[in-house]
Amino acid sequence: MLGAAAPPASAADTDTDTDTATVEERRLDRAAPQEILRRSGFDGVAPEFARALGRAQSYGEARRIVEREGSALWRRAVDRAQGRGPATGDLSRDDDRPLYWARLGMTRELRQWQPTRFEVGEGGHARLMRALETTSRGQDSIRYPQAGAGDGAGHRLKRVLLTGFDPFTLDRDVRISNPSGATALALDGVVIETADGPARVETAVFPVRWQDFADGTVERTLREQLPRVDLFTTVSQGRVGRFDVERTNGAWRGGFPDNENVSRTETVPVADPASQPQWTSTTLPYKEIVNGSTGRFPVYDNTSVTEIPAGGTGPVVRPDGPTAGSTAREGGGGNYLSNEIAYRATLLRDRLRLRDRLPGGHVHTPVLQFGAGNTDPGTGKITDAEFVRNRLDIIAQVRQILKVAMDARR
């Protein structure tokens, strides 16, 4: 999810009027999303949700239905990814796309829902939509065992937090999967054995939408969690054939269109902008991660940024990081939402005064590629053996990167 030159984009209609589908929701009726839903067994999620909503007798009951069904979708996707319960369809279990498309089916049903037995009230649909987004992304289910829990051998159970993203650039290829989202599903609640004992991973997934980030979805999800964890990393898809540990994050949105085809070119909007730095830095043990044996893809310590130097007027690429007093134009991870989630998470870490004790930062995965002969979105299949192998290898390597990072904390 690196920054790129932004093509012209029209603003999407993203309000919560009941008769208006969003740009994301309109893609649902294409052949590939429908096949993904059918072949995963998730094609019944949205219709069942609509029937449940139709039985609501009050706004409070509707809210409970939304929260219950959103949480159930997240849990179902996690269970499927981790081999629990029936496979439901012939799509590989590691696939993150059923969660994405099923959620959009639910949001479209909620947007079109018009109860006749009660009034929703001003802002009611928006509150229900936020509840659905939060629950179906695992953002409200990050829970660790009680403090002091361990493995019986004197090791305290460590706590790791990892975030992923939805698929994106879907107008280029609507079949796209995001390995960071697949990793989040595969690792949610998983315990990793480290040199200092077990570490439990909790995860959440975020949308590829500028407005959600401006509305504070990252901070709402992470603020209570960062003081409780031993390590965190935001994860997204980056370059072809390589992992990158992004050393520096920049306070700039470069304008590449999001999943609603909305473009934003501006300073990253955060609370208290007067104290906002232009740059934040990783505290992940990048040297150990780069030098560790984690999998088949090479891992790089990416130090390059693009800045406007102090007193300058134009952007300059700095291979070794920013210079004093410069203005950000790209972090190591570009100037799209992967850079922004890294910037927001590490800024929050620093504002909570955790920088000196909490390892955290951003990891870019390789681009998840379809197999040879299946690269044309117009004629290609929704999956193939190489596509699945690439995704499984990326997931396994992220898991090993977490292990190496936790081992380095000793």
Description:
This protein has 410 residues and is an alpha/beta fold. It has helices spanning 23-26, 31-40, 45-54, 59-81, 97-112, 124-136, 179-187, 210-214, 217-222, 286-291, 337-351, 385-407; strands at residues 158-165, 191-194, 197-206, 231-237, 243-246, 248-250, 252-254, 265-267, 279-281, 299-302, 305-308, 316-318, 327-330, 360-365. The strands form four sheets. It has a seven-stranded mixed β-sheet with strand order 2-3-1-4-14-5-10. Strands 12-11-13 form a three-stranded antiparallel β-sheet, with no helix packed on it. Strands 6-9 form a two-stranded antiparallel sheet. A hairpin with a 7-residue loop joins strand 11 and strand 12. The longest helix has 23 residues, at 59-81. The protein starts with 22 loop residues before the first helix and ends with a helix. Residues 4-18 have low confidence and may be disordered.
Write a brief structural summary.
This protein has 410 residues and is an alpha/beta fold. 34% of the residues lie in helices and 16% in strands. α4 runs antiparallel to α5 (97-112) and α7 (179-187) crosses α12.
Q: How are the SSEs ordered, and which strands pair?
A:
Layout (H helix, E strand, L loop, with lengths): L22 H4 L4 H10 L4 H10 L4 H23 L15 H16 L11 H13 L21 E8 L13 H9 L3 E4 L2 E10 L3 H5 L2 H6 L8 E7 L5 E4 L1 E3 L1 E3 L10 E3 L11 E3 L4 H6 L7 E4 L2 E4 L7 E3 L8 E4 L6 H15 L8 E6 L19 H23 L3
Parallel strand pairs: 1-3, 1-4, 4-14, 5-10
Antiparallel strand pairs: 2-3, 5-14, 6-9, 7-8, 11-12, 11-13
Helix pairs in contact: 2-5, 3-4, 3-5, 4-5, 4-6, 4-7, 5-6, 7-12
